[in-house]
Every structure is written in structure tokens, then in C-alpha cells.
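From the methods appendix. Each design record in this collection lists the discretized structure first, followed by the designed amino acid sequence. Records were kept in a plain field format so they could be parsed without special tools. The example shown here is representative of the layout used throughout.

RECORD:
C-ALPHA CELLS (236 positions):
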């Protein structure tokens, strides 16, 4: 992610969803946030700040006010979200190191040293664009990195991945990415989308997956524009 976009409508969706997950009794209360921070640039694409157009998170007045305040006070920095999560009693560790493509091995090795955050945690990966493509760069998360983190986490943790949609049909894209994740982890991911971005969730045990699926379905009832034209059976 880039700090220049902190507080936009995508953040409203992602941080509201994370907080909902971590407030559910049967789900993790600890967050390992891996933003894969890259340098700001002059590109304003995707800098969407009108919360009235958001499809999720709009009912969370506390989060809206918090993010809006950060933007207005020119505090567009991922480190600001730490205080929001802690206000709910959640434990969070944010990896503030800059993400450089040629040093990605060192970046993830350092993260894997945080062993306590691979136990009963929500591990959130937030690359600029999402999962790897053929000519990947610093904007992408590689499948072998997903595999390593998935292997490292315990059976009561959740791996959450941010993905933007490219210019191709969304349903087919979601199914293809889900299948690729399943091939590499031997686990079929859950997913949720506002039709601009999609979050994939990987777990290791069926009980946790079931509880997470119930939470996501409840969240979609709260925000019915999520997954309007998608059901998991479309990928079968």
C-alpha cells in the first residue's frame, strides 16, 4: 500500500471488516498487518475519498470520523490506524519497513521472526495491487510468500489478502485466483468483494473457517452491495 491513499473508501472497507472479524468471539483478536509499504508517487488514480460512494464500512461512524480526521489533518500514514484498533482492545503489530522488490526476501524473513503474531492472529497482507503476475514488481505479493506465511501460522489464525481487480471479467478472475491459492495451500479461500477490490481469506481448520464464513455472510447482510452478483458456487 501507499500512505498517500490512507483513509480512502477502500480503507473504510478493509479496516471496518478487520475490526468486525476481531470483535467476533470465536475469531482472532490479534492483528499482524503487513502493508508492504511503497513510496508515495504523484499518481492520484484510486484516491477515492467520498465515503457516500463506499459499499462497506459506511455504518461505522467512529471509523469514518477517525479516517476523515486523519485526512483533514494531513496524517495519511498507516501508523495512525494502530490507535483505532487499540481503542477496541485489539493487539496489533504493523510492519512499517518500506517494501523494495529486490529485498523482499529479507522483508518477509524479518516478519517471520514475530512468532507470537502467527498464533491466533489475523495476518493481513496489503500489497499495492495484489497477487503476483508474470512480470511482477513491488506492487505484488508472490505465491511462495503466501505459502510461507500460511505454513508459519497456527491452526487458529487467518491469512487475509488484498487484491485489486484488473481489466478482465471479475467473476472469472475471482475464481482463477481462488483456485491458484487453493493449489498452493491445499485450502479453498473464502472471499468478499465490493466489485473494485476483493479480500481472500485462508484458514487451516474447518471450525475457524465456518465461524469466519458466518461472519462474512452477516457482514454482507449489513452491506448488501457486497458480492451482489457473485456466489462461491460460480467457481465450482
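DESIGN:
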Amino acid at each position: 500500500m501507499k500512505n498517500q491513499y490512507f483513509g480512502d473508501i477502500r480503507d473504510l472497507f478493509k479496516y471496518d471488516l478487520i475490526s468486525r472479524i476481531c470483535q467476533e468471539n470465536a475469531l482472532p483478536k490479534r492483528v499482524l498487518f503487513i502493508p508492504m509499504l511503497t513510496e508515495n508517487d504523484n499518481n492520484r488514480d484510486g484516491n477515492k475519498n467520498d465515503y457516500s460512494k463506499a459499499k462497506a464500512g459506511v455504518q461505522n461512524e467512529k471509523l469514518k470520523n477517525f479516517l476523515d480526521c486523519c485526512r483533514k489533518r494531513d496524517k495519511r500514514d498507516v501508523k495512525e490506524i494502530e490507535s483505532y484498533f487499540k481503542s477496541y482492545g485489539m493487539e496489533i503489530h504493523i510492519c512499517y519497513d518500506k517494501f523494495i522488490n529486490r529485498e523482499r526476501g529479507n522483508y518477509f524473513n524479518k516478519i517471520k521472526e514475530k512468532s507470537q503474531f502467527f498464533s491466533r492472529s489475523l495476518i493481513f497482507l496489503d500489497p499495492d495491487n495484489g497477487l503476483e503476475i508474470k512480470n511482477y514488481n513491488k506492487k505484488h505479493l508472490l505465491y511462495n510468500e503466501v505459502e510461507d506465511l500460511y505454513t508459519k501460522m497456527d491452526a487458529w489464525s487467518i491469512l487475509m489478502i488484498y487484491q485489486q481487480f484488473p481489466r478482465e471479467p471479475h467473476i472469472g478472475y475471482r475464481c482463477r485466483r481462488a483456485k491458484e491459492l487453493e493449489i498452493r495451500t491445499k485450502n479453498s479461500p473464502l472471499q468478499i468483494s465490493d466489485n473494485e477490490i476483493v479480500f481472500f481469506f485462508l484458514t487451516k481448520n474447518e471450525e475457524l473457517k465456518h465461524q469466519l464464513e458466518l461472519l462474512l455472510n452477516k457482514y454482507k447482510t449489513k452491506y448488501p452491495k457486497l458480492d451482489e452478483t457473485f456466489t462461491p458456487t460460480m467457481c465450482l
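APPENDIX NOTE: The first helix runs from residue 9 to 23.
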